[in-house]
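Hi D.,

Good news: the full-assembly prediction came through. Inputs first.
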Amino acid sequence: MPVYVDVSRCIGCRSCEVACKRVHSGRSYMEVKVIDSKASVPVTCHHCEEATCTMACFSQALSKDGERTAFDIHKCTGCSLCALACPFGVVWTDKWAHKCDLCKGLESPMCVVTCPAQALSLDPDAASKRARTRAAAAVALAQGVKR
Amino acid sequence: MISLDTTKCIGCCSCSNVCPSKNITREDLGDKRTIHYKKCSEFCDICVESCPSKALSLAAQGEDVEIAFDLVKCTVCGEPFATEKMLDRIRSSVPQNLRVDSAGQSWVEICPMCRRDLERERAARPVIKKRA
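Then the structure:
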């Protein structure tokens, strides 16, 4: 259950970063950057099925908890092996590791709730569902069907 | 007191992070990492417990020890980011098929910052193409 990103909808406002900071004591586990002034992309933990960070973690601070890649700060020594084992570079370390926890305890991750452009979703099909809805609306309009 | 097995140490950040008495210090200067172990007389074994490579042990005698590592440079940006032994550790704990990204590129030798940039670049490319 990672956070799915529809890059075509992201407006690069960084609301997700701010929302993440609000939940995680001033630290964001999401990073947005604008590419060539044409597109912006937020990157965050993918909660990989075969999570390489959990394979590198020697103290079991990182583990799979269902679809979530969970992190137990009490077991972490800050060795930084997880940061080096993440293919996407989305585990940060200083005294301990920092990574997305999908806002454990909240109903939905705060970045998803906050995104004003609906670029973030927990539904992998969100982008294609919206496209189908738009296509259906276009057909309905062409046939003169009132909504 | 602690003793260090220099053949086992991988130069990670564990012991220097967890030492409550600041007797273990780590310094990254350019492409060199130095870890300094001050002679320690605390009754504590947190660093021993926290070592991923079991390089530390409790000992009756102790002395000042220093160990230095060359930091490996990122193949993309050229910035030094990790010791070769840490990367070897990743290579041994992550299976070969997971050490390449969707483009077939090996990511272990790339620094985390550049990995994020590459990931973003890949995700943005189809959208940029449409907007060009």
